[in-house]
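Hi team, as promised in this morning's meeting, here are the two structures we talked about. I've kept the exact order from the run log so nobody has to guess. The first one is mostly here for context; it's the second one we should focus on when we meet again. Sequence first, then the predicted structure tokens.
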Amino acid sequence: MGVVDKFAIASPVGRIVINLDQVIEGNKQQNILLENGDKIHAPPLRNIVTAMGHIQMPTSLIFDSNMSVQDYINATGDPKKQADTDRIYVIRANGSVMLPDSS
């Protein structure tokens, strides 16, 4: 079962994206209210980028700040013919989503 398949059957956990650096710096607008029973899960820091979808060779690559989204796609052997290249998106490490053509 692939990662995308696992997302399809996963039950929601009430996930929220926070800007922890801003919370720590005391930015009140970024602060969140925790209630009894709330849990915070901070996954381990990984320096990898995983490319998947309709690409030639889904794979994980070492993160390089000099590489663009297109560079990572090219490193996988480019999109397959059936790929919808207008709908490419990036899920950042903090869980937020970025559309490369608009950011």
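And here is the second protein, the one for discussion:
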Amino acid sequence: MRMLHTMLRVGDLDRSLAFYTEVLGMRLLRRNDYPEGKFTLAFVGYQDESEGAVLELTHNWGVESYELGTAYGHIALEVPDAYAACVQIKDRGGKVVREAGPMKHGTTVIAFVEDPDGYKVELIQAKS
């Protein structure tokens, strides 16, 4: 077995694609419209689906927002330098909700950003 993808429901697919590709640097891997079901699926990631897990962005036509719920946590991305990543994300119009720095009760450097739908994305600085 292997992890394939994580699905997020998004209210504005173009806005979400811009965030994940232009702000976080992922690639749009594939996009399919399903007119009879009134939804679109877009898959984004840093590598091809055959090589690693990706995000599935699901846009249900006519639905502009969702309640995130209290069970959802976050997506985590490894970055070489969390401080530099925060600067780049802000320069690209992204929202940093927790600046880079050591995590509480630990030494790992982390930061949090938020996508246009309010989903949290944790940046974890790679150990040197």
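Starting points for discussion:
The chain has a mean pLDDT of 96.
The two ends are 30 Å apart (CA to CA).
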